[in-house]
From TrEMBL:
This is MutS domain-containing protein. InterPro entries: P-loop_NTPase (IPR027417). It comes from the Eukaryota.
């Protein structure tokens, strides 16, 4: 992450953070840190952190629970493609491989 620093006529300096868009989903949020910078009460920040942690746990449990179904669907897709359609089969196998790599190699 970059930043731009500016000097104001009053002599104060300001800093603006710059962001670069990239594909994919963010692994974490900085909302709580933004709240801290905005001087929100510590008890509010701690409550937000507890709720965020719980939501992450719920999402991870759902991801783990859905993994076997997702893999079964991807395998079924590979098996039902006409063998003469090499492009579709290659895409289906790539989808399966990418999903396996992204979801980790432990368990199913």
């Amino acid at each position: 992450m970059g930043y731009v620093e500016q000097q104001l006529p009053s002599g104060e300096s300001t800093i603006s953070f710059t962001y670069k868009l990239s594909p994919g989903m963010a692994r974490s949020s900085f909302g709580i840190e933004c709240g801290r910078l905005a001087h929100m009460p510590e008890e509010v920040l701690q409550a937000a952190k507890r709720h965020a942690t719980r939501m992450q746990e719920i999402m991870e449990a759902r991801r783990v629970a859905n993994r076997p179904r997702k893999i079964a669907g991807l395998i079924k897709n590979c098996l039902t493609i006409d063998g003469r359609d090499a492009d579709s089969l290659a895409r289906a196998l790539k989808d399966l491989t990418v999903f396996h790599k992204l979801s980790g190699s432990t368990g199913i």
